[in-house]
Write a structure and sequence with these properties.
mainly alpha
């Protein structure tokens, strides 16, 4: 089996993480497999699908989400007042 260049293997592994095929914790293992045996890496990806897609989607959503504002009015502010909680603490 031909070995894959390290740069190309890194790109493929990063894409697999982004796509949700592997978790970030699997990066080192996936890099070793991809660089030493690209066909086995392709087989692995084809059989596993994207079981971790929710993780990468959640991470992207968290980075793009606007900052939470504190409840200045409404039910949340009323509940905070009754419980003696500073509404600013809810954003933490």
């Amino acid at each position: 089996m031909a070995t894959l260049s390290q740069d190309r293997a890194q790109v493929r592994v990063d894409k697999a993480v982004t796509d949700g095929a592997i978790t970030p914790a699997m990066r080192d293992w996936a890099f070793d497999l991809c660089s030493q045996n690209p066909d086995s890496f392709d087989t692995f990806l084809s059989k596993t699908g994207r079981p971790f897609a929710h993780i990468s989607q959640s991470a992207r959503r968290d980075r793009s989400a606007p900052e939470r504002s504190t409840p200045a009015h409404g039910e949340a502010a009323e509940i905070c007042a009754h419980m003696g909680i500073d509404p600013a603490k809810l954003a933490d």
